[in-house]
Automatic annotation (TrEMBL):
<feature type="transmembrane region" description="Helical">
    <location>
        <begin position="56"/>
        <end position="76"/>
    </location>
</feature>
<keyword id="KW-0472">Membrane</keyword>
<feature type="transmembrane region" description="Helical">
    <location>
        <begin position="12"/>
        <end position="35"/>
    </location>
</feature>
<protein>
    <submittedName>
        <fullName>Uncharacterized protein</fullName>
    </submittedName>
</protein>
<feature type="transmembrane region" description="Helical">
    <location>
        <begin position="164"/>
        <end position="186"/>
    </location>
</feature>
<keyword id="KW-1133">Transmembrane helix</keyword>
<dbReference type="GO" id="GO:0016020">
    <property type="term" value="C:membrane"/>
</dbReference>
<feature type="transmembrane region" description="Helical">
    <location>
        <begin position="192"/>
        <end position="211"/>
    </location>
</feature>
<keyword id="KW-0812">Transmembrane</keyword>
<feature type="transmembrane region" description="Helical">
    <location>
        <begin position="82"/>
        <end position="104"/>
    </location>
</feature>
Length: 222
């Protein structure tokens, strides 16, 4: 007896059950959060400002650019090695989604660095502005009001980037855990061989996302 062209014995394996739990449980939790959590408005500065106070946003831009170029190169090598039918697998779509996130993040970080340079200007001007803020409470309040007004305008691309970030986080965890913990330990046949390229496809995306999470301010949004 077969279902969908696959023997019934395949669907009765314990790995299929575990994979289903890994997929269904986070989906239920995500739906619960979507239904119960109130909508939050992120500031545009959360998209390109690092969470570390003394870290210049240029470092986040350089990291995102490096991540995008590295992942695009790995994806290109995978397609060249295995053909376009490699997108039959969920892994490649996840990898492509993370690549798109870093592409959009690079563009927004570049724009944010440009805004940062306009706002702060040369070091002497930045020092003067700092002294003026300390000596003028009214100027401080007005500046804070303007900053709050600007930070609320994330816009379409900002919201898209945040949604990509959240989607990629769940997809990458699902893909890499299933591959390294459930599939790879039982691939004993000669038809499969773990190569450096395959290993990178199932690990680089998680590493880059974790590093980006340690640098960005998206996790600070309540």
């Amino acid at each position: 007896m077969a279902y969908g062209g696959v023997p019934l014995e395949y669907w009765l394996q314990w790995q299929v059950f575990v994979c289903s739990i890994v997929f269904i449980l986070p989906t239920i939790i995500a739906i619960k959060f979507i239904v119960t959590k109130k909508q939050t408005h992120i500031g545009y500065d959360h998209l390109w400002m690092p969470c570390w106070r003394n870290l210049h946003p240029l470092w986040l831009l350089v990291f995102r650019l490096f991540s995008f170029v590295s992942m695009a190169w790995l994806l290109y090598q995978t397609v060249m090695s295995f053909g376009v039918f490699v997108f039959y697998f969920y892994t490649q779509w996840t990898f492509l989604l993370v690549t798109i996130y870093f592409a959009l993040g690079t563009i927004i970080s570049a724009h944010g660095c440009w805004l940062h340079s306009k706002e702060h200007g040369p070091p002497n001007q930045e020092k003067d502005k700092f002294l003026k803020k300390d000596s003028s409470p009214k100027f401080n309040e007005a500046s804070q009001h303007n900053h709050t007004q600007v930070s609320q305008e994330a816009g379409f691309w900002g919201n898209l980037m945040q949604n990509l970030y959240q989607t990629c986080a769940g997809a990458v965890v699902l893909t890499d855990i299933v591959f390294w913990c459930l599939l790879l330990p039982f691939q004993t046949g000669d038809n499969f061989k773990l190569t450096l390229l395959i290993g990178c496809m199932h690990s680089v995306n998680a590493v880059f996302l974790l590093l980006d999470s340690a640098l960005n301010s998206l996790l600070l949004v309540n």
